Amino acid sequence: MRGTLYNELRRAGLFCDAILKVEEVEFPIHRTILYECSPYFQALFKDRTTTGQIFHIPLVSPDILRVIIEFAYTGSVASTEDNVQELMMTADMLNIVGIIQACCHFIGELLCPQNCVGIWKFTNICESSELRCKAFHYIIQHFEEVVPAEEFLQLSVKELTVFIGKDELNVRIESSVFEAILRWIGHIPREREQHIAVLLSQVRLGLTSRLYILTQVITNKLVLSSTECKLITEHSMCMLWHISTIEPLPCGLSNTLARPRVPHSFLLVTGGWSEGVESCDIVSYDSVVDHCTNISDKLQNPLAYHGTVFLNGYVYCVGGIQREHYCNNVVRLDLRTHVWQEVAPMHFHRGYVSVTVLNGFIYAFGGSNGLVELNTGERYCPETNQWTPIAPMHLPRSDASCTVLHGKIYMCGGFTGTECLQSSECYDPETDCWTMISPMSCVRRGLRVVEYNEIIYAIGGFDGIQCLSNVEAYAPGSNSWHPVSPMSSDRSNFCLEVMENLLYVIGGFIGISNVDHIDVYCPSSDLWVARKAFMSRSYASSCVVSGIPNMAEFIISRYSLPHFNEDLGPGFFS
User: Fold this and answer.
1) pLDDT digits (tens, 9 = 90+) for 98-132
2) Using CA atoms, how far apart are residues 464 and 457, in angstroms rounded to an integer?
């Protein structure tokens, strides 16, 4: 209120007691307002009481000073893409913390592959640990998109070495790191060719293949001209040979050349039944090294028959059953801060609930309230923290499963309270209507469905008599299901997710006990392979986590790994 009044007086030119002057442009101001804004102005005005005194502000443009004065009076910052860097540098010089923070937030929202290197370097001039960290992680997470940008070529050898040496570097294939090095060197070859050995030492050549090293690396003229590079390639070839022959690696051979990087995404499993009781545990699965890790963030109460989704950095646990109590509450875990928070509850209590995410909303369907099976649905908006009812399904469905394709939600199978279901239906959020689609080939409850490459896969479940291993795929274009290869074992009420073009089936129930191994399906080859990682869990729920800056906190440390996991060497599913 005080600032608003003074700002009106300033605009009217009333009761101003000083003038700030830059480049012959004068700005009448009230010293008391600027005095509160910054230690710079406190020092400038100290012991100077003459009304109307002119203060010259060096190294500041009139446009930027105008923005600073507006901030002092209103608390708002008129930053734009054109002025934000100059504004932040000036605010840093004048020690105006509020503007620095606002500029950091504004610049952080502008990060893209074309400017992230420049923004990261800008923090060397205008220090901001928060912005520097954000830009650094952006480069790490989007490395393959950053490499073609012009700014990538402006990195120093020391800076590039730091980036490509990080376990957290996000690359789909390791060969892209070698190709990035060649692009960087090729920009100024005479100056940069000398750095080939130090850069090549950071490439995980043991994560490529012998063919790639023989045809693309060893034959490169820069590698041929360097004794150090030849030694690196020889060590990498030796490592790959030992991996392919499943022999122990020779003592003393560094595993750095084959140490897996932190994955772009990992699978998170929450709650469920384990060893005959409901669990509070949350387990991460790192598919790169086939390893399950119990993370320190546990559910606040044992939970099963619930839904889990990942949205905007949060893991949401929706509904479920806690010690025979059917829940409508929803909690979320901020993976960046490890803090749990309870959000708005659903309108209905839902155990055996089906959940998914579409267009930034969380949807919850069906389930049971402990007395009857439900056909109702509702959706949650994180911005308003509210659940809104949507059109009911044609049938009540608990223990069903849903997935998203082409902006619509497909719900398959389930249990009505008296019978297992074979039917499926589709929800269009634009019309708030459900449409029945072709039924599956058999009845299924406790199944899981997932979309991959515009096909919906329905996997496993329980048909009322036994658990199932069979799998079928739905093509929306033809509105038809067709069989694909079955899993290696029968199971129901498991977790199913897609990562890196593969379908992962984790845990589940097999009639008298839990399934403890992980099955992995490759749609392109229609093949299933069993993984060794152990996770004996049923009636749990899962999601895929990606894009958080602290991915490494949720998976096994790369320094704790053996030289390499022989079963997961290069060429898996190739």
Assistant:
1) 999 999 999 999 999 999 999 999 998 888 888 99
2) 20
Structural domains of the chain ordered from first start: 2-110 (3.30.710.10), 155-258 (1.25.40.420), 265-554 (2.120.10.80)
The model's pLDDT over 312-327, given as tens digits with 9 standing for 90+, comes to: 999 999 999 998 999 9
Using alpha carbons, select from 293, 291, 288 the residue that is nearest to residue 572: 288
* Structure token digits, residue 192: 């940069």
% of the chain residues with pLDDT over 70: 94
Half-sphere exposure of 30 (CA within 13 A, CB side): 20
Look at residues 168, 225, 163, 175 and name the one whose alpha carbon lies nearest to residue 204: 175
Q: Which residue in this structure is represented by tokens 């929450």?
A: 270
The residue written with tokens 């387990």 in the block is 283
Helix H, strand E, coil C: the string for 157-223 is HHHHHHHHCCCCCCCCCCHHHHHHHHHHHHHCHHHHHHHHHHHHCCCCHHHCCHHHHHHHHCCCHHH
Residues in the chain: 574
As a whole number, mean pLDDT of residues 52-68 equals 88
CA distance 415 to 174: 46
pLDDT band at 570 (very low <50, low <70, confident <90, very high): very low
Specify the DSSP element, H or E, that contains 392: none
